Amino acid sequence: MSSTILYGYWRSSASYRVRIALAWKGIAYTYVPVNLLDGEQRSEAHLARNPMGYVPAVEVDGELFTESLAIFELLDGLHPETPRLFSAEPRRRARQLAACHTIASGIQPLQNLSVLGKLPLDAEGKKAWAQHFISHGFTALERQLQAEPSATGFAMGDAFSAVDACIVPQIYAAKRFDVDLAPYPRIVRAYETAGSLAAVAGAAPERQIDAKL
Amino acid sequence: MSSTILYGYWRSSASYRVRIALAWKGIAYTYVPVNLLDGEQRSEAHLARNPMGYVPAVEVDGELFTESLAIFELLDGLHPETPRLFSAEPRRRARQLAACHTIASGIQPLQNLSVLGKLPLDAEGKKAWAQHFISHGFTALERQLQAEPSATGFAMGDAFSAVDACIVPQIYAAKRFDVDLAPYPRIVRAYETAGSLAAVAGAAPERQIDAKL
Q1: Residue B110 near chain A (CB below 8 Å)
Q2: pTM
């Protein structure tokens, strides 16, 4: 029996992605909160888990792994008996990965709190910056999803995938920054479709033990 | 016989990564430059290839793919007879992916020219911003590589991998921003080791048909 520990933070997008992925695959895990407001992510104990000083980190049988999309692939590789996050077909997988990267490298790094904190802008300026990069990425993502018919509403094709696991936390962040979601009907439909799954609902930030409401 | 077209730009990090990957795998391709200085990446013709308005895009038998790391996986999937970019072993693969993401989502998005252009900072301030994020990411990456012994000098283990294909362009960018590389001996060793390969040398920005020297 393998042991899985998730080091995360309730509001972190990347932690949220991994909570969704673990729940979707039905993998039991221990959740260990890392308090970003107290600077715990910069402690040597946490840097040994994640050298970037970010969350999440996942420990599987004592070995540590970082980066949410790398963790997705790890989970598909270690738990082939559980529902897949990525297709095994190379072209479809590449399209799923590209949509995930639109969020994970095209949007999220530019609007996370540590980057916003370094911007020489006032609160309104920081919000406009975040809105700009979320809208730019969502415009691209909407186009990516429009090219992928779905009878069910999931992001790419008829089944839940890694793309949905990335969309849900990014919409959560977009709402915090008051982004107008009207131009992105396909993304919003995927968000709502995924949100109806118990695995996704249970991964919500407000339902974590470290949530400060 | 499959046909492969790379839409790229000589100085783009992500284009450079994909040139290295294609050459390493020995995949013949047609190179179509997209002139970022003329704004060609924002044309509808290019947005149809890459909805983010970024480079690269790769066209395989008429189908378009974006995001360098997704393209790496596509190439491994479509050309299993060529040298691999990622290990097939899930844990090793996850560590390689995490190191690639340290560069592709942890560093590059924060110091690319379109983001620097939006920063309300003067030239010196933009340079300091880029140096900060490159140094932060390299500090983490150095630690990731130190944990992976290599007899040959490559980034992770004894063979060239996707990690090396990400390191070479990121060092190229670091040099443009005058980043002090002394604290990162393991990264520099991987850069120099990879640079001795003909596949890597031939992918250098200055050797592309659109290079403006």
Answers
A1: yes
A2: 0.98
